[in-house]
Known about the structure:
Blueprint lengths: L1 E6 L2 E6 L5 E4 L24 E2 L10 E2 L13 E6 L6 H17 L3 E6 L4 H13 L4 E4 L8 H9 L4 E4 L13 E4 L2 H15 L4 E7 L5 H17 L3 E8 L4 H14 L5 E4 L2 H13 L9 E6 L2 H8 L5 E4 L5 H12 L4 E2 L1 E4 L3 E2 L13
Parallel strand pairs: 6-7, 6-8, 8-9, 9-10, 10-17, 11-12, 11-13, 13-14, 14-15
Antiparallel strand pairs: 1-2, 2-3, 4-17, 5-16, 15-18
Bound molecules: beta-D-galactofuranose (GZL).
Amino acid sequence: MVRTLRIKGLLLVLVLSGLLVAACAPPGSNTGGGGDAGGGGGEQAEQVVEKNKSGGGQGPVCDVKPPDISGLGQAVVGFSQSEEETNPFRIAETQSIRDEAKNVGVEKLIVTNAASQINKQNSDIQDMLAQGAEILIVAPLNADGLEPAFQAAADENVPVFLIDREVTAKPCENYITFMGSNFVRQGKQAADLLAEATNEKAQVAILEGTPGASVSADRQSGFVDQLKAEYPDMKVAASQTANFVRTEGQTVMEQLLQSNPDINAVYAHNDEMALGAIQAIRDAGKTPGKDIKVVSIDGTKGAVQALAQGQMNGVVESNPRFGPLAFQTIEEFLSGEPIPQNIIIQDRIYTPQNAEENLGAAY
Ligand code: GZL
């Protein structure tokens, strides 16, 4: 038995055996995961999701009764953004939520920004509940620390849908589902791209994301474990956080180049830090993409352009355009559909060969 499910321009056929959603995406859209990027998905890149309704790899299904809301058209939805919108990832993520809220005709959307402060994210969420939010979409800043917000939502019987980063809180009890990328896979893919660029021989500097964020730990372990498993001549010379910020990426890279002159490769947990590192490499009189190979994760326009121009050597997409998937999942929940605890999206891979033609999908 097959159920057809439509997500904004992307026709998905859900095979009840439930492991993978085979997307018959329109031509030029991403068809998922590990291969070369599909064609440009345009501004609103289509997302192919692995959605398992019957538990298994995506975790069991939450058996939670939806609130008595007739539909999104009568709902007040709150969106809690975690980091300031200076990073293109955050800009694209918030815009995608705003655009889809308009597309589905949400009665009212409230948007807050925690400016990378966990206490503010708790108070933001509590404020939106006080303003009458009946459904919450949350991009968590850290894996821990949102217990006050989750408790406040539970007290009001307001369902929470996580996008982007995971939390250590309890699925079904504190949130309905997590929608996001497989960050460990992203780290592994970045290691493969860097191995390709360095002929599997490198002294690598790692620019890590924010400590305490699930995405930082997973992108680190995915990369380091892949080096240990597959690339014995690729060594981590240094690894330090630059908090996903471009200016910090530049400063940390300057320091690492001075203390580790043998560095010939950089892995950055996100594009913003990679673009900062590129500036530091230039300031040190070296050529990024050639003397020092650079690979990162996100898929921002700045990084994909740098890749196309030869200043970088690979970019793994981390798609921030959660709007269509988030509201589709909320609509399913409100209609009583079973929702898996994890909905993992597929991300494309940008290479020196496909960067130019796929620039349209960058954000
Ligand atoms: C990934 C997201 C990360 C981005 C960074 O889902 O949490 O946070 O990769 C951002 O750019 O800071």
